[in-house]
Amino acid sequence: MTQEFIDKVSSYLTQDISITPISQGAEAIVFSTTTHPYLPETKGSREKYIIKYRPPKRYRHPQIDQALTKHRTLNESRLLAKLHLIPGLCVPQLIACDSYNGYIWLEFLGEDLPEGYGFSNLKNFLWMHDKDPYSDLVAATLRKVGRQIGLLHWNDYCHGDLTSSNIVLVKDGVEWIPHLIDFGLGSVSNLVEDKGVDLYVLERAILSTHSKHAEKYNAWIMEGFEAVYLEQGAKGSKKLKEVSKRFQEVRLRGRKRSMLG
Amino acid sequence: MIVSTIPQFPDTKVSISFFEQVGNAEEIRSKMSDLSTSFAFVDPKMICSQEQIYSAIYKTLIEVNYNKMRTRNLNSECVLCLSPTSNISDAFQKFGIKDDSTELICLKFHNDTDNLNKEQLTTELSSIVTGVEIEFNDKNLSKFYDETLIRKIYKLNNQFKPKDVKDLSRALVNAIQLRGI
């Protein structure tokens, strides 16, 4: 099944562009490549790029399938373009978008962590620091993660699938700069519900993978998150109150809203 | 002159020439109806990086191969693809050559079947443009672009403060990739 898609992608890209599959989700397959889609001098350089491909689903009517793929590819690309304009927010750069075939080219972020801890997403980073979980580096990084989410929500965007593996850390000297990735389920939304759910999903993700220190971790994230709102003055603290209140409610009932009443 | 190919479309070549101290912009513009079939003339005031031009070239080939051609040929399509809007005449007014242009970028798409002869092309161009050819690179482009104008035409809001040319260029690539779809 997957091989079929890999062959399809290869024939779309021609043999000049070699690809390595990285991961597959329900909707898209992600590849990495060393070839830039259009800049000439990168040939042979060690720079990497991401190709995100949404393959057609055979259980859908072809016309509907095409429309959906186009819509979703564009939705994600548009979101990334808008988020890039927000000062301080870190998201991957959109390099190219072919919505007719369901392809997005993105900047490659992150690196492999030392000692076989895997790719530098937040999840693996926390595993790597499992022995010194309360170090300043961990605290600072998690506060920065919180800031990113705060900035996203303050500007009325929601991620939709905020897990610790969708937060990639990019090394800058001794610091780690968190970047939010995968906006496939992202949306423009001013609903406190969506924001509450984002926070809840991340809290649960951290709770399930790093339960021993989760309380402290989540507190640091919320510190960073709140800081963004509090910097905005009275209006910010009012909105923060609304989001936190809903977050508590979501925490009690779970992600899915009750269908009763 | 630089000749490049987009890896995904190996059958198409694009030649790019960059001129400064152009003295006959008005004359070129008056001959536009004949010339527009063979070249695209772009005003470097609107271009801040190579990335921006190449991004539009890529977009042109995607549109023409997988959607449809909206203008008469690939060269004119590329000017349209530079623009953040789908209005063709608007794109030409803003991104094309102006009467008082003193710098110029000339673009031409070549099919694999065309015999691309660099010398012949240079001669052809020098008979059209009176100016000094300079290398098409980011350093030279950075001398001529007009950030205020670019921000206005690409409708970048005031909240966005690019750190450097690269950051600005990225915002333009986003706009180019997402135009009109």
Automatic annotation (TrEMBL), chain A:
Top-rank taxon of the source lineage equals Eukaryota
SUPFAM superfamilies, A to Z: Protein kinase-like (PK-like) (SSF56112)
The record's catalysed reaction(s) read:
L-threonyl-[protein] + ATP = O-phospho-L-threonyl-[protein] + ADP + H(+); L-seryl-[protein] + ATP = O-phospho-L-seryl-[protein] + ADP + H(+)
Q: Where is the Protein kinase domain?
A: 16-261
Q: Which Pfam families does this one have?
A: Kdo (PF06293)
The record, for InterPro entries, names: Bud32, Kinase-like_dom_sf, Prot_kinase_dom, Tyr_kinase_AS
The enzyme's first-digit EC class, named in words, is transferase
Keywords, ordered alphabetically? ATP-binding, Kinase, Nucleotide-binding, Serine/threonine-protein kinase, Transferase, tRNA processing
Look up the EC number in the record and give it: 2.7.11.1
Q: What NCBIfam families does the record point to?
A: arch_bud32 (TIGR03724)
Similarity remark: Belongs to the protein kinase superfamily. BUD32 family.
Q: How does it assemble?
A: Component of the EKC/KEOPS complex composed of at least BUD32, CGI121, GON7, KAE1 and PCC1; the whole complex dimerizes.
Name recorded for this polypeptide: EKC/KEOPS complex subunit BUD32
UniProtKB/TrEMBL annotation, chain B:
Q: Where in the cell is it found?
A: Nucleus
The similarity annotation says: Belongs to the CGI121/TPRKB family.
Q: Which SUPFAM superfamilies match?
A: PF0523-like (SSF143870)
Q: Which organism is it from?
A: Saccharomyces uvarum (Yeast)
Q: Predominant location of this chain?
A: nucleus
Q: What does this protein do?
A: Component of the EKC/KEOPS complex that is required for the formation of a threonylcarbamoyl group on adenosine at position 37 (t(6)A37) in tRNAs that read codons beginning with adenine. The complex is probably involved in the transfer of the threonylcarbamoyl moiety of threonylcarbamoyl-AMP (TC-AMP) to the N6 group of A37. CGI121 acts as an allosteric effector that regulates the t(6)A activity of the complex. The EKC/KEOPS complex also promotes both telomere uncapping and telomere elongation. The complex is required for efficient recruitment of transcriptional coactivators.
> Source gene?
SUVZ13G1020
Q: What is this protein called?
A: EKC/KEOPS complex subunit CGI121
Keywords of this protein's UniProt record, alphabetized?
Answer: Nucleus, tRNA processing
